[in-house]
């Protein structure tokens, strides 16, 4: 059935990956809307678990090992791994909103922190054979990455 809708398997995979990026829009809106509520670390921990509880780890493996998939994605997505890049942007935007509210230090490099959160989250979740990390383990990673950025 797929052969009727897609040129080949890599075309299907590219559409799948881009669809996953589109599905992150609601999560990004919800995280941005959480600015000023709860704690910064808890908000990010929940969002990080949601990103990596989805197919993000599998997408990294697909993009890494399929040259044709990477080439197709580059036609519409110029850099990075689509789901992870979008997640880093989502965290950066959220942290900027928290910075504007005074809950994150004024000089915090929110874009770098967003990328660090995604990279650290990926390493935490990358062992797909094992059990997922506990919420406490995720929160520890988040608070370590954010050390010095949130205001008391």
Describe the protein.
The protein is mostly helical and 152 residues long. Helix content is 69%, strand content 0%. It is built from seven helices and no strands. Helix 1 (9-33) packs parallel to helix 5, helix 2 (40-53) crosses helix 6 and helix 5 (82-100) crosses helix 6 (110-125). The mean pLDDT is 83.
Strand percent estimate? under 5%
Helix coverage percent of residues? 55-70%
Choose one word for the global shape: globular
Report the mean per-residue pLDDT as an integer: 83
Q: What distance separates the N and C termini?
A: 56 Å
Continuous helix count:
7
Structural class: mainly alpha
Low-confidence stretches: none
Order of secondary-structure elements: HHHHHHH
Number of β-strand runs = 0
What is the C-alpha radius of gyration, as a whole number of Å? 17 Å
Oligomer: single chain
Largest sheet: none
Summary of the model, kept short:
With 152 residues, this protein is an all-alpha fold. Helix content is 69%, strand content 0%. α2 crosses α6 (110-125), α5 (82-100) packs across α6 (110-125) and α6 (110-125) runs antiparallel to α7 (135-145).
Search tags:
globular, single chain, 152 residues, mainly alpha
How do the strands and helices of this protein lay out in sequence?
Blueprint: H1 9-33, H2 40-53, H3 56-65, H4 67-76, H5 82-100, H6 110-125, H7 135-145
């Amino acid at each position: 059935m797929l052969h009727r809708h897609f040129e080949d398997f890599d075309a299907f995979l590219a559409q799948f990956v881009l669809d996953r990026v589109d599905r992150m829009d609601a999560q990004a809106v919800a995280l941005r809307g959480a600015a000023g509520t709860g704690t910064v670390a808890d908000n990010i921990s929940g969002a990080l678990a949601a990103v990596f509880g989805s197919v993000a780890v599998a997408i990294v493996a697909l993009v890494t090992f399929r040259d044709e998939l990477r080439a197709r994605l580059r036609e519409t997505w110029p850099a990075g791994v689509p789901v992870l890049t979008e997640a880093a942007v989502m965290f950066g935007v959220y942290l900027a909103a928290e910075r504007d509210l005074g809950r994150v230090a004024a000089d915090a490099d929110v874009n770098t922190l967003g990328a660090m959160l995604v990279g650290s989250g990926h390493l935490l979740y990358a062992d797909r054979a094992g059990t997922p990390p506990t919420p406490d383990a995720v929160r520890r990673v988040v608070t370590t990455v954010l050390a010095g950025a949130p205001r008391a």
